[in-house]
Structures are given as structure tokens and as C-alpha cells.
Amino acid sequence: MVFDYEYPHTSLCKVVESGLKRLADVVCGEIQDSSFLPCDGKDKFFCIEAISVPQNFIGIWGWRMQEEQNEIHAVVVRFYPDKIPIEIIIWDDCSSEEDLISRLKQNDKPALSSGRALLSYAVDGNIYRGLLCIENDLFSVAAPQFFSFNILDCVSVDEKIFYSKLTLDIPDHTRIANRIANRIAEAESQLESIEKEMYALTERVDQLEQAIEFLQDNRDESAAQLQASPIKQFYRPGKVIELFVDNSDLDDFICAFEDALDAYDDQIDHFAKYLRAAYDNHIPLMLVGPNGRRIADAFSIALNGSTAATFDCAAVNCLDDLNIVSSSTDPIVAVINPFAPNFIAYLPELLGIEGKFFIALYPFIEDLRLEPRSFFNYFTPVFTELIFDQPDPIKILTRLIDSTDHVALFAAFPMAYVNGQSDRFIEKFRGSGRTLDRLKKFIGDEQ
Predict the structure, then answer these.
(1) Residue 270 is assigned to a structural domain of this protein
(2) Which of 169, 189, 204 is the last residue before a domain boundary?
(3) Potential cystine with 181: which of 120, 143, 229, 373 (Cβ 3.0-4.6 Å)?
(4) Predicted TM-score (pTM) of this structure
(5) Burial of 303 by CB count in 10 Å (0-12 exposed, 13-18 middle, 19+ buried)?
(6) In this structure, are 359 and 238 located in the same domain?
């Protein structure tokens, strides 16, 4: 207990009609035996300030002497609301903690003179055990706190018993029990909150399932209509792979793109950023080489959860056919046969459709040199062979063949022939004469 220099004396007092009645002194945080109360005539304090607690209330006050009209009076006091004496109330008919709780549940509420009490029962000899009760939380047994104490550590004051100390020593097992009880109460509260959230989520899931069913029915109906109409000749919508996709964050988009493409390395990361930059800046691309369709679908799935729609330029009959593209819900459209003569004049109208990102697909890089260079004002080319490592088909197909002749006949010579290297292949061939004659005969027949 901190010493108060302004009010050097501390006493246990009772509120009476005329002011305060001094019952016992408090020294070093302990209530002294009232039989040692000094006979100095200061057993009653006539307070200057109004007392804010009810009559008969017992509490702790600090006080000092003050001189008035040449007389010394103990009239200046200060109430300490944080220093609450602990009253001991013994229930002789109780012999266990359960008895105390049961009696409290029966609404047996004793009056507390100080606002804090230990409702107690005898354990063994001078040892008692009590349930702590506080005025503003009286008889709450949700998380009871029990304390053991020696009755010899108590003092009798004004026909009441008080614990001599103003604080309770909480045993370790009591701390643990209280902590467990508090955590159980918190867990029960959290569980109740989670159950409410789960109920709300269940309702939301039901609503989403109904919405999905509705959308799927409409999509099936739309697909049936497309199959039954000439539109199917040049436009095919994408297929839903994943619902409720939100990859607006670049890192999330890159991860989703790699997952959809099933390819993971640093070059794919940068390629994903390049594709995303083209999309964000509305720059149409042309993927030239192998894997173009696979890339377009992976890009579309990463953005909106569905594969890219397909638009066949070669099957378009007139400019009005573009209306089906503008009215579709597909944001990513893969354009095939982009050099079709019947459509190439419609490119500005196609790329002018709002809300769409177009990716042209073409398999052969060499053909690009034959097309008008101004075509690439509309589509920026990307060579997929420079992005993906292409496996050597000859090594894959002939890895189990240990014959030079057979490797030449099955794979090596055909590849050299299509690349215009057949004569050089013949010069360097080290196989059998029979195979060499067959290869020379083939070249001679061709010539």
C-alpha cells in the first residue's frame, strides 16, 4: 500500500449519520486488531466534504489532523475506492465449493457491508475456503474464484469479520483454473459467433448454388441455340473452368496463369507480366508458333475463370456477323485464320469492339514475311518458340533405337529434307551402303 503524504493516517471506517466512525487502523496494507485502537478521542470524523457512499458502508479512508479555532480536529478525509476491505461471511451449513454455488443459485444473497466478501466454509481447523463476491458482479458463478485462508489472519470489527489484508494471494492452481474458465467462456462466445457466421455462409452458399444452376441452364440453352444457328460457324464461347475469380492483383494473376498453363519458371513469370500489360493497355497480340491456343486459354482462365472464346475469320460472311462478338459475355477472344482474305478488311471493326481483348493465333512463323507489314499495326506478334523450350522430337522418338540407319530413315533425313539440308546430310551420312543408296535414289527421284 503506497503511503499518502497528504493523508498520513489510514483507517477502516463506517459511515454513520454524523460522519465517519473509526473502527480500526490500517498499517502497511493490513487492518489492525480494533483492540489496539488508540484512545485519542479520534474515533469519529466530522468530514468537511460530502460522503458519496451509503450509510453503514465500511471502507478505507485516509485522514489528517487540522486545526480550527485553536482546536485540533481529525476532519480532513479522503476515500480510497480502490482499497476495498474483504468481509468474511461464514456459511456453517456449507462444506464444499459446490454447496456455496448451490446456495447462491437458490438466490440466497447476503448483504455486503464493504462491497467485497468471501462467502466461506470451514475446511479443517483454522483453514477456510471462500468464494469471492463483488458488489457489482455479485453471485456470478460463470467463472467462480475460490481462495483458501487462515481464520487467524482475520480481525473482528463492529461485529463483523474482515480479512486483515486488503489483497488476496491467489494460489497457482486458482490462477490456472480462473484462466481456463475465462478461456472457456471466450471460446464459447467465439463458437456462438462462428455458428452465426456459418449459418449466414450456408444461406449464401445456397443462394450461389441456385445462381450457378440458373446461369448453367441459361448457358446450356445459349449453347444449344448456337449449335442450331449459323453463328456456330465463326464464333464459339469459352468454357467456364472456375467461378468467382478475382486476380486483379498482379502476383495473384501470375500464379493463376502458371497454374492454368502448368508451366513454372522465371521466363513464364515475365511473359505473364507482358501479357497482362498488353491486356491492361488494350494492345491486341498475335501468338505465332506452337502452344498459342494453350496460352490464350491459360490467360483467359487466370483473368476470369473461363477459356477464351473462338472467332474464325475465315467463316465470317459479312460485317453484321460481328454483332455476335460484341453481344457476347466473353472478355477474351482467340482469333483464328486472321489472314483470311474475306475478313482482313474487317479487322478495324473487330478490334474496335469495346470490352474485348483479342489474341490472334497462327502456327507458322515463316508465313508472316509473306503478309503485308501493315497488318501488324493491328496485332503485335509474339513468337511462342522463343518462350517455351521445345523438345527435340528426333531424340524423343529414337531414344530406344541404336541403329544409325534406322534413325536416319525414320527421323533425321526427313527433318534435313524439309529444312533443305538433304544434300549435306548425304555427304555426312556414315551408315550402311544400302541405306545410303536408298536415300540417294529418293533424292534422284525427287529431282
Answers:
(1) yes
(2) 169
(3) 143
(4) 0.45
(5) buried
(6) yes
